[in-house]
UniProtKB/TrEMBL annotation:
Keywords: Ribonucleoprotein, Ribosomal protein. InterPro entries: Ribosomal_bL12, Ribosomal_bL12_C, Ribosomal_bL12_C/ClpS-like. CDD domains: Ribosomal_L7_L12 (cd00387). Belongs to the bacterial ribosomal protein bL12 family. GO terms for cellular component: ribonucleoprotein complex; ribosome. This is Large ribosomal subunit protein bL12 C-terminal domain-containing protein. GO terms for biological process: translation. One of its GO terms (molecular function) is structural constituent of ribosome. Residues 123-186 form the Large ribosomal subunit protein bL12 C-terminal domain. It comes from Dioscorea zingiberensis. PANTHER family: 39S RIBOSOMAL PROTEIN L12 (PTHR45987), RIBOSOMAL PROTEIN L12_ ATP-DEPENDENT CLP PROTEASE ADAPTOR PROTEIN CLPS FAMILY PROTEIN (PTHR45987:SF6). The lineage of its organism: Eukaryota, Viridiplantae, Streptophyta, Embryophyta, Tracheophyta.
Amino acid sequence: MKLLSLIRCIHVSVNSSRTIRPLQCRHFCADVAPRDAKPKRYKYPEVYDPYGPRPPPSEKIVQLAEKIAALPHAELKQIGPTLQFRLRHPKLQTISAGGLNMGQQTSASATKPEEKKAEKTAFDIKLEKFDAAAKIKVIKEVRTFTNLGLKEAKDLVEKAPVLLKQGVTKEEANDIIEKLKAAGGVAVME
């Protein structure tokens, strides 16, 4: 059997150099892995704990847990912040969800009383339209308050109505609107 597989693996080429080279093939022998052997079954834990089994809590910890569980709801809410302060843990920062679609809001949030809206401090400038004869003047004005090149400013102005600048103060926004108005464009503050 082994001789037959050896003959299959070796190929003699009849060239002028008469080299012997093996073919690229593999033969699996039946004696490598017995077919009737059953695979081993390992018992895996339900939850993997990289630190190994933990010792049971002490009696003092069990009594403390029972006392905490017996507290009223109002006092339970105070435990977390108090421990956080006492152990000097950093306060968790809230993550802004601006721009994310959170799905439909529940009716409970609609019943809350509306809070006073803070006065807006940052404004956006939007170019509504411009006079076709004053297109070059409007492009030059757009270039003065943005960091755009001539082609980019021209493309931006031609897309009107378009947002020109975001997050500017009220005074700066009024100056830009007046300059655009003098050049022949109509801009609004949002």
